[in-house]
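quick one before i forget lol
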Amino acid sequence: MNPALSTETQLLTFEDYLRHDDGTDTRYELVNGVLVEMPPESEENNDIARKLLFELAKHIPIALLAHKDTEIEVTGRRATGRIPDLLVHTEASKAAVAGATRATITRDMPPPALVVEVVSPGQANRERDYRYKHTEYAARGITEYWIVDPETQQVTLCLWVSGQYEDRVYSGAEPLQSTVVPGFGLTAVAIFE
């Protein structure tokens, strides 16, 4: 990270983040005004994300699916943008980014229908996915947020109800019950095998 771009005294706005180009292909999320480098995922997490992508493609038009390439502006203490592992657009959110030079869903655009995060190892990653993103995605009114946790072998399906998420944890052989993808047939066991 270039310290001249973001320090505790010089925080970035979301507009600064959208203009940022350090001449590398490093991926960043903006978290409370600070650029945070996003390291590559583990191969296990990539395998899980691909499996979910292929399963979702059986039920959702390909044009409405995004895999680690669409970012979403969320509400935080300061400017924050997240890059979920998977995202399912609504027709409205897809139309809002159509023709744009960058696949970014800003706060003035309709939210996507579903975001999926595969939890990376480590306590900081767990807190980010279970705590911070849980609150941020709920505040955006995203219908479902799936927290896919290889460590616990569980999927937490967070369903947006009256302004907050109601969570249901899936483990074992019960298929996920999604309102966004009603025909989704994978179980937690199948996701992690």
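fyi Residues 1-8 have pLDDT under 50 and may be disordered.
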